[in-house]
Amino acid sequence: MAFKNGSRLPVGMQNVFPNGCHLVPGSITEAMDYDEATGRRSPAVDKYTGKPVFQCRVSDMDLDLEGRQRETVVKILADRMPTPPTGTPFELVEFDGLQVTPYVDTGRCQGKGKCMARMAFSLRATGIKAARPVPKQDAA
Fold it and tell me: Pairing between strand 118-125 and 71-77?
């Protein structure tokens, strides 16, 4: 099976953020596209749904990320700008309709054929909400 460039794969919150994620305060903004030909920025529109694109930063609470980058961006496709679910700083959030788009990042190319390509991914969702409380397990 082959995937086309830009394939979006549905994924569960537990697969992407096994220990949950915190919304970075004040990080929900309108995503912008850049036109290299004109040098202008314009509000991003999703090429498949036609919906406006917003983005937010979240801090991944995965314990295995010790010493590595925890912050990532999630793009949200919505008719209007989403608002933080509870409005509290660093609130735990979940995403509806979460999708991952894998791609090869060649942004580290330094010319002369030396390229440090790496596997990367982007995240998209259709909504953001307060995280459901995780049931506490009794110590045995």
Answer: parallel
